[in-house]
Amino acid sequence: MELALSLGHTNNASMGFSVALPHHTRASSDPPLQLHHLLPSTPVLPSPRLPIPCLSHALGMEDTPVRALDDTEDGAALSSPNSSAVSSFQMELYRNSRKFFEGDSEEDENGSTRKKLRLSKTQSAFLEDSFKEHTTLNPKQKLVLAKELNLRPRQVEVWFQNRRARTKLKQTEVDCEYLKRCCESLSEENKRLQKELQELRAFKTCEPFFMQLPATTLTMCPSCERVATTTSAAASATNNDSVYLNKPRILSGPHDPLECFF
DNA sequence: TATGTCAAAGCCATTACGTCA
DNA sequence: TCTGACGTAATGGCTTTGACA
Fold first, then answer.
1. Which domain of life is it from (predicted)?
2. Which of A29-38, A156-165, A207-216 is modeled with the greatest confidence?
């Protein structure tokens, strides 16, 4: 029985029940990366690329190369922010990024402390969309994403690592649920078959009694058309007279009840 | 051609931290 | 204010793989 479990999102549907991600998805053969490869076809953000350049501008970080990719293709998308007032959305980004930068600097100062930096919703959404496109990143993709989100490449790498782990965990839960249902179903089937077997056995053991009804009602074997005869002992006891025996009696040889009946 | 070494990348288990009820 | 549960970022160790001598 093949358990073709392609429930939910799996990295490799052909792997059947296994939920393991391909161990090595090294992208050495990947085509040259373009930014649009990293982005969802339907961005969840008004303009996924907009906030970061905005942010860089607000922070006076124009020297930070945000446009890490081929300018010819995505230049428009990465163009400077529009002239409208900075939205609260962008301000939130600004504040979040301030926190990140402060966190980074703090970590640099006392490297022993492990500061956990919470990603903003925007960053998470961006990463999530990228994950839908590629569950693994090649170094270039990682760098591009890191620059886009103002994160360290290591952070992007870790996020994808943890995201793959979460996916696998969820898939495992789904698989467990499915197997649980399979198990329950098989148990029911097993019970049903056991019951059926018991009934058949009971029927088989009852049959001789069926065959041992009073002689008047069971005088002839349907297969051989022989009537019940007396045993030799009975014959001698009755002076060789043929008698009908009312006592239970199993015929031997061809008169085996099972042989005759079936 | 076979083999050992090394670096890179991924997975896994675990820790540590932030948030929330 | 405290606390425990939970989600998740981060870490360290191990394995696998490909390149290279």
1. Eukaryota
2. A156-165
What is the extent of the structural domain holding A244? Answer: 212-262
Q: Which pTM does this prediction carry?
A: 0.49
How would residue A207 be classed by pLDDT, with cut points 50, 70 and 90? low
- Which nucleotide lies nearest residue A19, CA to C1'? B11
CA distance A94 to A115: 19
Assigned domain for A143 exists? yes
Closest residue by Cα to residue A101 from A113, A93, A90, A91: A93
> At CA A11, angle to CA A9 and CA A14, rounded to 5?
100
Taking the CA of residue A173 and the C1' sugar atom of nucleotide B8, their distance in angstroms comes to: 31
Residues 5-64 of A with CB under 7 A from strand B: 20-26
Measure, in angstroms, how far nucleotide B20 C1' is from residue A118 CA. 15
At A216-230, the pLDDT tens digits run 444 455 555 555 444
Based on the fold, state whether residues A151 and A74 are members of the same structural domain: yes
